[in-house]
Amino acid sequence: MIYIEKVVVNSFFENTYIVYDQNKECVIIDPGCYSKNEKDKITSIIDKYALKVKLILNTHCHIDHILGNKHLKDTYKVSIYAHTNEMPVFEAATEYANALELFDYVATDISFTIKEGDIIEVGNMRFNVIYVPGHSPGHLAFYIVKSKYCFSGDVIFVNSIGRTDLIGGDYNTLMESINNKIVTLGDDVVIYPGHGRSTSVGQEKQTNPYLWK
Questions:
Q1: 41, 56, 205, 211 — which has fewest CB within 10 A?
Q2: Residue whose C-alpha is closest to residue 59's, from 17, 91, 26
Q3: What pTM, to 2 d.p., does this model score?
Q4: Domains and their CATH numbers in the chain
């Protein structure tokens, strides 16, 4: 059994996911917690369920998805995983943090780079790494095949798609990623996006206007 806790954080209303199995092994996806209250909310969930945090996964490195990287990495002494093509995006976050008035943001290194086809195993969870660029150059999705859960970051949302006007964004590339990598997972796959509520591949095929083009 796989359990998911979603915590909406920061001024961008970003979804941070705490994913764990029946043995309490835990992965944190896109820790965007910034304020003390947000950080405390994440740690309180981990404490409540006595979870053992094993690693952090970044779907991509736009600042709203990595604000809590250092805090959680240092607190739980774990590694952070992202795609190598996200390094320019990761480095740029430090440069524009002050412009966004995120004065307390402190960067921390990405521990390991991962790529399409890799499998991240934590306890009874197996996250298939899927390369889905377009919103950012090294964007990844993490797919648990057995549970049919896809953590898609900012690739696709309810009736919408990710922005392509940010660093490394490209509309045609994004649509190729959605049509060739997300849609093909199957209608019953649940999508857990980086913002907003969860949806499914089947639902988006029916209602998302970007998939009709």
A1: 205
A2: 17
A3: 0.97
A4: 2-212 (3.60.15.10)
